[in-house]
Design goal:
mainly alpha
Length: 323
């Protein structure tokens, strides 16, 4: 294996291990938005919170060739889920699911157009461009310590990818510290209490499309979706639990380093130690980049999403009377 490929594998595994990878807003941030929207009370709001994070479940399908296709489905064809709800619990889930989308939902302000800082691009996109240069030295020292050669262009690209993940995770951390100290517990409970009908609701919405895209039978696509959602549910329980701890920063860093090492060894036969301190340094640097304006962006996003849900008639497209 050449050094350039080894570099890609190592950094890809590190990035995949960080909780906020490509989540637009991180999971805790999406859950917080759904909690504040509060379309349904009590336990039903927990279903909304879980629904708000589920569009990112296919991010866990590391290396799957149709991962991008499925991500586009949940982020742009999200109304398929809304229109197939068949119970009170899945109705709440569908409302939360719709709040997440890239088209006009919460992820729109993260990736496309911020509504708080009004930078002309997404909040996370703006912040990762500020953070990326700060991460280059740490990444370079890590690569040098492993004797891995690299080219500057690749380092630039990877710094942006890692910065994106770090910004999302940093906002999650600050939300758990400032906006809602119980968000980790809420996430954990929401995942544990998610309606047992959720996997089949997702399968009814996307399995046929996946079967056609991947050239597999319907039963295979259903099984793949169900297994992925089950793994994601467990991941949300774990991530929520981490955010309840006083040493959440250390735990996030340790979890990321351990996952990176496992994936490298199991997938590529590469045994390399990924230091948790490297993860922690990036996360703390991201906190410094976002701490002064993330709260304003979050508040503006919440108002924006509420308006969008109303203007797009999401509630009117959810069945009103269900058993």
């Amino acid at each position: 294996m050449n050094n350039r490929l080894l570099l890609i594998l190592i950094i890809s595994a590190v990035v995949c291990a960080v909780p906020g990878l490509a989540f637009g807003w991180g999971a805790a941030t999406h859950a917080y938005i759904a909690k504040e929207l509060g379309h349904e009370p009590g336990v039903m709001n927990l279903q909304e919170m879980y629904g708000a994070v589920v569009p990112d479940m296919f991010n866990l399908m590391f290396g799957y060739e149709h991962q991008g296709y499925l991500w586009n489905k949940t982020h742009y064809e999200f109304m398929k889920v809304v229109k197939k709800v068949n119970s009170e619990e899945s109705r709440a889930f569908g409302y939360g699911f719709a709040s997440h989308n890239e088209d006009w939902g919460a992820d729109h302000t993260a990736h496309i157009n911020s509504v708080g800082i009004k930078s002309g691009e997404g909040y996370v996109v703006t912040k990762k461009k500020i953070l990326a240069p700060q991460l280059k030295l740490g990444i370079t020292l890590f690569l040098n310590s492993k004797g891995i050669a690299y080219v500057p262009e690749l380092l630039d690209e990877l710094s942006l990818v890692i910065a994106d993940s770090a910004v999302e995770s940093a906002v999650d951390l600050l939300v758990s510290q400032n906006e809602d100290a119980q968000i980790g517990t809420r996430m954990l409970v929401a995942a544990k209490l998610r309606s047992p009908f959720v996997p089949m609701l997702l399968s009814r919405s996307y399995a046929q499309d996946l079967a056609g895209e991947a050239g597999i039978i319907a039963e295979e696509s259903i099984l793949l979706i169900v297994e992925t959602e089950t793994q994601f549910k467990e991941y949300m329980e774990l991530y929520g639990g981490i955010l309840t701890q006083e040493n959440a920063v250390d735990l996030m860093a340790e979890q990321g380093a351990q996952l990176a090492e496992v994936m490298l060894e199991e997938r590529y036969g590469i045994v390399v130690e990924v230091p948790a301190e490297l993860m922690k340094t990036g996360l703390l640097a991201a906190v410094d980049v976002v701490k002064n304006d993330y709260s304003g962006e979050l508040a503006a996003t919440l108002e924006y999403v509420a308006r969008q849900l109303e203007s797009h008639g999401v509630e009117s497209q959810l069945p009103a009377d269900l058993d």
